[in-house]
Write a structure and sequence with these properties.
heterodimer; A: 222 residues; alpha/beta; Methyltransferase, Methionine Synthase (B12-binding Domains), Chain A, domain 1; Rossmann fold; 5-stranded parallel β-sheet; 56% helix; globular; B: 234 residues; alpha+beta; NADH Oxidase; 5-stranded antiparallel β-sheet; two-stranded antiparallel ribbon; 7 helices; 9 strands; 38% helix; binds cobalamin
Chain lengths: 222, 234
Amino acid sequence: MSELLTQIAECIEFGKINKVAPFPPQMKGQDGADELTARAIAEGVAVQDILTKGLMAGMEKVGIKFRENKIFVPQVLMSAKAMSTAMMHLKPFFASGEARQKGTFIIGTVLGDLHDIGKNLVAMMVEGNGYNVVDLGTDVPAAKFIAALEEYPGAVIGLSALLTTTMTNMDSITREIKKLKPETVVAIGGAPVNQEFCEKIGADYYSPDPQGVVEFLNRRIA
Amino acid sequence: MIKEFSFRFDELVLDLPLLEQSLGFGEGPLPEPIDEYLAEALAFAVDLPDIRCAYRLVDLDEPVHRSHKIVAEGIEFHVGHTVRHELKKSERLAFFICTAGAVISERSKALLLDGDPVLGYVYDLVGSFVAESAGDKMQEILLEQVSSSGEKITNRYSPGYCQWSVSEQHKLFSLFPDRCCGVSLTPSALMHPVKSISGVIGVGKEVKFREYRCAVCSSTDCVYRQIHQRSVMA
Ligand code: B12
């Protein structure tokens, strides 16, 4: 059984979606995350174990390798694709409560900014590490974050921006969120953002990469 | 005087080795299906109808080295120390806007949103390279134009780099008619279509062209720097 979970973890780590997928070359022709997850469920492996010891274990490796510049965006996207394919098999078990996600993360690119690749990567990585992710898209005003918080009380907020001009909107959005919901944890990121800016606007956490925010969430709410 | 150009993809010189390297698969051929994705995106780029550039040559109101700012057409640009240094000795400036166009920007966005994100990312990267290559092509044309009068050009410098605030694009865009080259600027200084660049080039008999290197930029976590470091380490 643990052999199967290790194989699932490897499929996520290397982005092996399913048997017909040619990527990665060294796994060509082998079963992918799709087939192996289905097999694990059929063999009665605990769904929570498939999630944590298979899928999440693989995704953690992806996050670390990306942080260390050992892999680039396309490999991460391949892994995310393998992950979401496997997750389709697990969806019914989340609904029934047999598998649990660790908490909710609401993410969006702030008002005035339309960049989304960086934000999407963070969303995929956080989801792949066992969180429910609510992606509000781009050009998101404070009111939309607050409305999402009403729906998911206690969720952590993630803000993304790629220009120094739009980064300033993180300030007002963080302030508005904290005014109405002072207990809300706000994490920020994006190319021009840094730790100093994070402290200045009273956000709770900054990370230059997605893995940082995953580790932060694991410490903070998991 | 504003000069505007439309380029065909096959007139541009894309740095294909760098493009492949940016995909992050190291040395050797790209793996399947990434090789097909790149071929698809490049084939799509061949038909791009809206790769455009414009530049406007203006006289400097005062010499660059005497002042903390750059003043042209009565507009004060606060370009920061590095860019000012690079532009010193310029007699004229060429402000520019270049774009890979809305077609590729929108195609990549659509694929990223609900198609295939990996393919979407490859289109995105090709779009970025097209925008930069259009800038190279425009630079060539500018050089050709000014060299007839014995002038040379500097490299190009953009608001948002080297302490030149990205919001100064509003001043730059005021030198051009609305939606010049099909590009517009939002209040938060974001260009539409996204695959666009803006900036300035110094022109004069004494100016020097210096390759733009990571050394003059303060950004530490830029992907270009990572690619550069990786190839240095390899
Ligand atoms: C490719 C690129 C371009 C391309 C394409 C741009 C596009 N929008 O598609 C081109 C050449 C067209 C371009 C143009 C410009 N660019 Co540009 N560009 C880049 C570059 C090199 C890579 C961007 C990218 O795709 N990164 C990949 C993604 C995955 O990274 P990311 O979005 O940063 O996200 C990661 C992290 O930031 C983090 N993250 C993101 N969000 C969040 C959220 C949370 C909560 C957390 C924890 C983490 C996190 O995780 C992600 C994954 O690691 C960056 C430098 C860099 N960052 O490396 C500059 C950069 C974004 N550009 C910049 C600038 C200034 C411009 C221009 C304004 C220049 C000009 N005057 O022409 C224009 C603007 C274009 C426009 N539409 O308005 C600046 C922006 C900063 C600033 N000064 O405002 C940057 C940062 C470069 C710099 N100077 O340091 N650009």
